[in-house]
């Protein structure tokens, strides 16, 4: 099996596992501790993080299929992932607005901490997929970071730009 295929399978599997296990473990932790929990805020931030992890899973799956089939990403790729990108931004804004408009006296420090922490995780995952690679888990990728002194562009962001410009050229023709 090709090294790139193995890497893409690893990335797809890791994101899928995180999208399933992370919410399960976190909700179990909240449930186990008992007491009053601002479920709506916490779940909204957690659901957004899981939603973005699922996007990563789908991206790495499409990338793997594209490599295996030796074909470019499918025509719907750009529209779907551009939609995901914008929906992430809308959800981030909605959670922030809800958090800012909520009476702080009704929130515990734990509610505020969990919500902000999960929201920060969602923002970082969004950046990691759509803008700049934040995860450097191999010696080669970390070496690239040290040699160049800057973050790499995110693979999904690059593919989104590439498929967007291709779609624009096709529409103009």
From TrEMBL:
Domain of life: Bacteria
Sequence intervals crossing the membrane: 12-31, 37-60, 80-100, 112-130
Keywords linked to the UniProt accession: Membrane, Transmembrane, Transmembrane helix
Record-given protein name: Uncharacterized protein
Organism: Massilia cavernae
């Amino acid at each position: 099996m090709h090294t790139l295929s193995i890497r893409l399978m690893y990335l797809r599997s890791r994101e899928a596992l995180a999208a399933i296990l992370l919410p399960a473990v976190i909700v179990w932790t909240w449930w186990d501790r008992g007491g009053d929990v601002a479920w709506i805020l916490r779940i909204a931030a957690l659901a957004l993080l899981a939603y973005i992890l699922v996007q990563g899973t789908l991206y790495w799956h499409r990338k793997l299929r594209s490599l295996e089939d030796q074909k470019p990403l499918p025509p719907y790729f750009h529209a779907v992932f551009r939609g995901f990108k914008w929906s992430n931004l809308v959800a981030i804004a909605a959670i922030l607005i809800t958090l800012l408009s909520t009476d702080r006296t009704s929130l515990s420090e734990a509610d505020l901490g969990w919500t902000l922490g999960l929201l920060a995780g969602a923002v970082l995952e969004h950046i990691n997929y759509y803008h700049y690679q934040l995860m450097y888990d191999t010696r080669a990728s970390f070496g690239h970071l040290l040699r160049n002194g800057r973050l790499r562009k995110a693979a999904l962001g690059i593919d989104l730009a590439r498929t967007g410009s291709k779609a624009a050229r096709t529409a103009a023709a």
